[in-house]
Amino acid sequence: MLLYNSAVSGNCYKVRLLLAHLGLEYETVDVSVVDRSGRAELLGLLNPGLRVPTLVLDDGRPLAESNAILWYFADGSEYLAADAYERAQTLQWMFFEQYSHEPNIAVARFWLAYSGKPEEFADRRSRVMTGGYAALDAMEHHLEFRTFLVGDRYSIADISLYAYTHVAHEGDFDLSSYPAIRAWLQRAASQPGHVSIDA
Q1: Which of 40, 89, 139, 190 has its CA 20 to 30 A from that of 160?
Q2: Which listed CATH number (3.40.30.10, 3.40.830.10, 3.40.50.1220, 3.40.50.920) goes with 2-74?
Q3: CATH number, span 84-189
Q4: Contacts 24+ apart (CB under 8 A), 85-88
C-alpha cells in the first residue's frame, strides 16, 4: 500500500495510527500541507479533492478521505463494532469530527503552527476558537461518564477525534478545564500499537 501523507496532518495521522494498531505495512509519499503546487499532477487521477491522506491499495485502487479510509480498514476488526446501532454512533462521531471539530481545532492549529503566516488569520481566529471550544464541550459532556466514545471499547471513533484533540494546544486551545477529555486522551495513547503523530 502507498499512503500520500503529511507528517503534521492529523487526518493523515489517523490513518497511520489505525494501520499501526492493525500491524499493516505501507509506504509513504510526503506531501506538503502548505505548498499545494503540483497536487493535480500528483493526486489528480487518485483523489478529485486533491487532499491527503490518499491511499492506494495493493491492487491499485485509490481511497481518499481519512474517515473513509478508517472505516475501510476497521471493518471486520475490533476497531469497528458489528452492532448496527454502535456502527451508526461511530459514524455520528466521525461526522462530528469532520463537521464541528476538525474545521475549528485543526484550522487554528494550522494557522498558528504551520502556515508560516499566523498574522494573516487573526481576524478569523475568534470564530474558530469559539467553534473549537464548543466541540470540546460536547466531547467533555459525552466522556464524563464513559471510557470511550462508542460502547465500552476503543474504536475508530476515538482514533478520528484523538488525532487533532491531542495536539489542540498547538492551536492555542487550553484543555486544563476538560478532565474527561484529558483522561480519555491518556487511555487512547495507552492502546496496544499506539504510535505518536511524529513517529
Answers
A1: 40
A2: 3.40.30.10
A3: 1.20.1050.10
A4: 86/150, 86/151
